[in-house]
Amino acid sequence: MKGLTQIAVSLAALAACVLVVALSAASFTDTEQNPQTVSAVADWTAPAAEASVILKSQGGAAGYIRAGGNYRVYASVTDSGNPSSKVSSVRANLSAITPSQTSAALSSGSYTVGGVSYNYRSASLKADSGIGAGSKSYALTLADGASNSRVQSFTAMVDNGPFAGSSFSTVNGAGNDAGEPEEGDAISFTYNDAPEPESIDSSWDGDSEEVKVSIADSSGNETLTVSGTELGSVSLKGDYVDKGKTVSFSDSSMTLSGNTVTIVLGDPNSSGSVNDDEGNRAPAWTPDSSAYDVAGNPCSTAAVTAANTKQF
Question: pTM for this one?
Fold first, then answer.
């Protein structure tokens, strides 16, 4: 009888264990009412950064900075899991760019850079004034609420210039008279590096934009300017408009290709005031220091002399 009692107790204990194991499973089904299955999968995966860029404080092209320049770090970070424990922190080790920033915090929000959306951004930071040019690596440490973490590396390009004008030229339009500024003639401003379009015109992205070109009399050394831009001015070294006159080409078109800004002249507002200068001339372009390259280096104002030839 005692043996039967022990067997009964053992069977009861085994049944209890089976019940506990069954109740501890991660899936439950209700077969009495509406059959439903509830599943829970733990968050074992660390957050991941789909993308990250560094953007100079002036905006424009991402991925470029200069020594001593201000910048922010942007990142697009997500956390998986069912349910997700959510991203708890995003920190950047920027010691290769800013030595003191080994764990800069990125704050959540909604940001757009170059048409791409990011949900984390750092405070404004400053690149070391002695940082050398070239590709620099930085790392993001990502953590979630379940203590999962991941480190991912990204790069930015340091460009310390110098940034300057490289050449200036004019091209006579098809069928036009050489030596006379006319509709269809082109003028080109070339830099030694790609300029940031927004630094030349705050609303410009480099695509075709209408601008006004003016040529003003200056006693046979006329001055060419482009209204609303930071291209600087050109001393044409020739007699292209009547004494005391300024001729405007208000519907001219401006485009950017690589390092060169090209403007095709529109119809002049007073063609009768335009002169035909038959001599060879070597115009001098003085760039504006407000223009800067994609890394934020300001342009030198050193004059650039064009080839000595018939212009326009």
Answer: 0.82
